[in-house]
Every structure is written in C-alpha cells, then in structure tokens.
C-alpha cells in the first residue's frame, strides 16, 4: 500500500502530492469568547474573526490557496455555533475566497459557560510557489504591524491601524521580490525571526535601534514578518499598518 508522504515545516503540516503540497495549519482558543466565564470577552463576530485569522494567515503566507476550513467549536450550535459559521463565511468572502468548504462540529450535549474551539485551514500550494525557507542571503527582515495580546490589551483586528488586515498579507504575497512571510504568534517576533533564519539556513543580524518589543506575544497574529531585498518604502505601498526594518539575514 502506498502512503502519503507527510512532512512538517515550522507550524505547518505538508502532504506531498508530487508537484503540489496540501498545507495544513491549526489553532486553538480557550477561555476567549462570548461566554459568561470567558477570561477575555469577545463578541461572537470578534471571536469568529480571531479564530480564523491565525491558521488562514499561515496558509496564505506559505503561498497556498485555502480550500477547506474545519471548525471544532466547544459551544452549542444554536445560536453561537451557527453565528460563528456565518461570520467565517462572511470573512472568507470579504477576502475573496468564495468557494471554500466549511465543515465542523459543536457541543450540543453539555451546557457550556466558557468558550473553546479548534480550527484547521487547508490550502493547496504549487511547489515552485511554496515560500517557507526562501529567504536569501542579504534579505532585510521587516515587520508589518505591532505585537498586541490579551488580556492586558484590547485587540480590534478589523479597525486598529497598527494591526494589518489579512488583505495586506494577500497583497504582499503576490509581490515578486518578497520571499518568506511568517505571521507572529504567542512566541513573539524574535522567536519567529529565528525560525525564518533557521528554515533558510541563515543567520540573523538584528538592528541596533529596534523600538518594538521583539519578545512580546503577538496574540492572534497582530503582526507578521517578511524577508525581502525590496526597500521599506516599496513594502509600505501595499499595506495600511506600519512597517519596521528589524535586521538582515546573512550567511
């Protein structure tokens, strides 16, 4: 029997289809949401947008086109789960993904007073347009956005000018000359930047005048990193959030 070849790069799982990869990203939430005992309170709409954001950004950043979203919701279907799915569909449509299949499950046997969820996004990438590890010697390291994380900060993923929209990421991913892109999560900027360097078998030389806390959690990917030889001014043309130059990748 022939088995599929499954690999992993950073937080992504890859299923090898000879000339393509199925790219799989996953995220989970607990104690965050619209329920009475949640530590971080979000509306259903805010919660659904936050659920989708991290794994969707990871798939898009890799160069893959998303085709399936799986939501495992630890809340009842009516009304919470149903409304979450409606928001997921609306957000995907806003981003231009009109034909993505959504599957999932809800908790309808036991009443819950605290929100929990897992979400998986699958995408398809051509191998010659799969970008993790493509950072080149001499590439600059740029940060788009500002790291923010609850519960000490209020996060508005759609209306905060310091947080990039996923549309910004989609725009940048189409630009020739932009190599690796990596959303930043709870590990912080420095951890993810070193991951980028390691994947490309390069070293990272940080700038001396960094004004951003590079060890702070970025929560639901309130910022992302990219490697490129393009000037900072060129990258700023395609995004609404602030751009910072943090260092350089070297042999």
What does this structure look like?
24% of the residues lie in helices and 32% in strands. The chain has 251 residues and is an alpha+beta fold. The protein folds into two domains: 125 residues, 60s Ribosomal Protein L30, Chain: A, CATH 3.30.1330.10; 111 residues, no CATH class. The protein has a six-stranded mixed sheet with strand order 1-2-3-8-6-7. The protein has a five-stranded antiparallel sheet with strand order 10-12-9-13-11, with helices on both faces. The protein has a two-stranded parallel ribbon with strand order 4-5. Strand 2 and strand 3 form a beta hairpin. Helix 1 crosses helix 2 and helix 1 runs parallel beside helix 3. The longest helix has 19 residues. The radius of gyration is 18 Å and the shape is globular. The termini are far apart. The model has no long low-confidence stretch (mean pLDDT 94).
Task: Jot down its keywords.
alpha+beta, five-stranded antiparallel beta sheet, 60s Ribosomal Protein L30, Chain: A, six-stranded mixed beta sheet, 2 domains
Summarize the helices and strands and which ones pair or pack:
Blueprint: E1 5-9, E2 12-16, E3 20-30, E4 32-33, E5 40-41, H1 44-62, E6 65-73, H2 77-94, E7 101-105, E8 116-126, E9 140-145, H3 166-173, E10 178-183, H4 189-199, E11 203-206, E12 223-228, H5 232-236, E13 243-250
Parallel strand pairs: 4-5, 6-7
Antiparallel strand pairs: 1-2, 2-3, 3-8, 6-8, 9-12, 9-13, 10-12, 11-13
């Amino acid at each position: 029997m022939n088995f599929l070849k499954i690999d992993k790069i950073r937080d992504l799982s890859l299923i090898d289809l000879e000339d393509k990869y199925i790219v799989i990203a996953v995220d989970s939430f607990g104690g965050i949401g619209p329920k009475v005992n949640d530590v971080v309170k979000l509306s259903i709409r805010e919660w659904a947008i936050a659920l989708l954001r991290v794994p969707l950004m990871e798939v898009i950043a890799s160069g893959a086109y998303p085709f399936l979203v799986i939501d495992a919701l630890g809340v009842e279907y009516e009304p919470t789960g149903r409304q979450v799915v409606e928001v997921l569909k609306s957000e995907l449509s806003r981003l231009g993904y009109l034909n993505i299949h959504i599957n999932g499950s809800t908790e309808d046997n036991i009443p819950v007073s605290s929100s929990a969820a897992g979400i998986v996004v699958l995408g398809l990438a051509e191998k010659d347009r799969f970008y993790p590890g493509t950072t080149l010697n001499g590439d600059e390291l740029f940060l788009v956005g500002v790291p923010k994380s609850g519960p000490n900060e209020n996060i508005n993923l759609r209306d905060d000018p310091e947080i990039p929209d996923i549309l910004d990421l989609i725009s940048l991913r189409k630009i020739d000359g932009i190599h690796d892109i990596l959303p930043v999560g709870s590990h912080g900027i420095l951890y993810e930047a070193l991951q980028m360097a390691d994947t490309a078998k390069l070293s990272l030389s940080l700038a001396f005048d960094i004004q951003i806390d590079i060890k702070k959690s970025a929560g639901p990917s309130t910022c992302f990193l990219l490697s490129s030889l393009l000037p900072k001014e060129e990258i700023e043309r395609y995004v609404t959030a602030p751009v910072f130059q943090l260092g350089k990748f070297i042999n």
